[in-house]
Structure formats: structure tokens, C-alpha cells
Amino acid sequence: MNNIVEDQNQCPAESLLKQLSGKWKPQIFRIAVTGPVRFNSLLRQLEGSSKQAIATALKEMEEQSLIEKTVIQLKPLHIEYTLSEKGKSLIPVFKQLEHLA
Amino acid sequence: MNNIVEDQNQCPAESLLKQLSGKWKPQIFRIAVTGPVRFNSLLRQLEGSSKQAIATALKEMEEQSLIEKTVIQLKPLHIEYTLSEKGKSLIPVFKQLEHLA
DNA sequence: TCAATTAGTCAAAAAAAATTGACCACCGAA
DNA sequence: TTCGGTGGTCAATTTTTTTTGACTAATTGA
């Protein structure tokens, strides 16, 4: 997924485009725009998805620093995923895409 | 690549994002912004690409109506690919992405 | 006539992405 | 103590995407 050395991107948009590519990432992003997001909640909202699908998407988005994972509580386990600053900076791009579509 | 029936997209940005996904499409798009583009010229510009790679990307972008194929001349064969209106409408999105990157 | 350029196609193989289904551990409520 | 919810992991398989390399066919310039 990630190329750091091999990508000497002549095309700046490309890397951001790649970070949002994948079957579930755009939908997760869109839901995350509205507020913090939880694993099992996503699983229920995204019909046709699976634990694995969600887990992979969240992990990659976290690695790309699009979202941040926060342990809210341990005792009854409660984890939240939130858009990072970088993630938030992509909101206008999404808005523009939605405007076009 | 295309889902028409199965995609009842809740996520409008998603389909446009998918149309620009693929290893070579963003780069081809970016070059096409600067003017009409030819097959072998792309092949030379995009290091690491191949005829097949370029052909597939161009074909899909044409199917998605992002670019238009025009036969300029037959006798010495000359074909050009140009951004369509839909393609041009994505330029601001690209600009925004480049601005962020 | 030979070489290069134009713009491709086709099939096979390799690599990457997505799906499927089993498994885990912990907590809380009934 | 069993059931449902929390948030995952792992391995195997399937599907999709990308790569590789051979092949085509017409035209132009030397």
C-alpha cells in the first residue's frame, strides 16, 4: 500500500487519491466527518462489509494519519476513531466531489 | 470496474474517486490537463509504464467519459486524447489536492 | 528495402486487494 | 453461567489489478 522510497511522486494528487482508494475508506471517511466513529457501529452501518474489511480500512487510514484511534474507556471497552487534522483538511475535497457528482 | 446496478451509492464522492483510482490514471489526467495527449507520448513520459498499462487506463477513462478519443489523421495515424467536460470539471479537485499535498 | 514510428491487442503470470469464516478475550446484564 | 456486545486477529481463498512479452498492421524516412 505505502511506497515511500519508490514514489517520487511527480503527481501530488496521486498519493492523496491512493489514500482514499479502497472499497470502504470513502464511506468510512464520510461517516467520520459527522463525528467520532466506533468499530461495531461502522460494521452495522456499512452493509456488505465485514470485521476484516473495517479493520483493514481503519488500520490503513490510521497509518496514513487520516484518522486517530482513541481508547475512551478500558473497562467496558470503548474505542473511537476521529478525523485527524489531515483528515479534516480533506473535507473540502469531498464536498467538491459531492457537488460534482 | 463499473457497477451501475449494484452501486446505489450513498457516498457520492466514492464513484468519482474510483474513476481516478488505478496506477496510471492520475498521472495521465494530470498530463491531459496541460493539453491533448497521445499514446506513445504517454508511454515515453510515464516511466515504468507499458503499452498495456496505458491502453487500459485510456480505455477506462474513455468509458468513464473523463477523456475523449479523437482521430486527427488516418494516413499517418494520429490520435489524440483530450479531457472531456466532465474531465475538466475535476481539475479544481486536483488543484485542491495538490494544494494540500 | 529496412528501420522506426504510429496505435494498439492478446494471453498468461504475478501481485495486490477483498472476502470468508473461524477464533479470541474481556465485560455486563439476566 | 450463558448470551450479547465490545474490538479485534488469523489463514485460506477468491477476485481484481497490474505486469510481461509476444504479436499486428499501416506509414514514413533513409
Give an account of the 3D structure.
The structure is a homodimer of 101-residue chains. A two-stranded antiparallel ribbon of chain A has the order 1-2. Chain A is built from six helices and two strands; from the N terminus they run ααααββαα. Chain A starts with 11 loop residues before the first helix and ends with a helix. Chain A has helices at 12-19, 25-33, 39-45, 51-63, 85-89, 91-100; strands spanning 67-73, 78-83. The first copy, chain A, is α+β, with helices and mostly antiparallel strands. The radius of gyration of chain A is 14 Å and the shape is globular. Chain A is 51% helix and 13% strand. Mean pLDDT of chain A is 91; it is low at 1-7. The first copy, chain A, has a single domain (2-100), classed as Winged helix-like DNA-binding domain superfamily/Winged helix DNA-binding domain (Arc Repressor Mutant, subunit A), CATH 1.10.10.10. In chain A, a hairpin with a 4-residue loop joins strand 1 (67-73) and strand 2. Chain A binds a DNA duplex (30 and 30 nucleotides) through residues 1, 22-23, 38-40, 43, 50-56, 74-79.
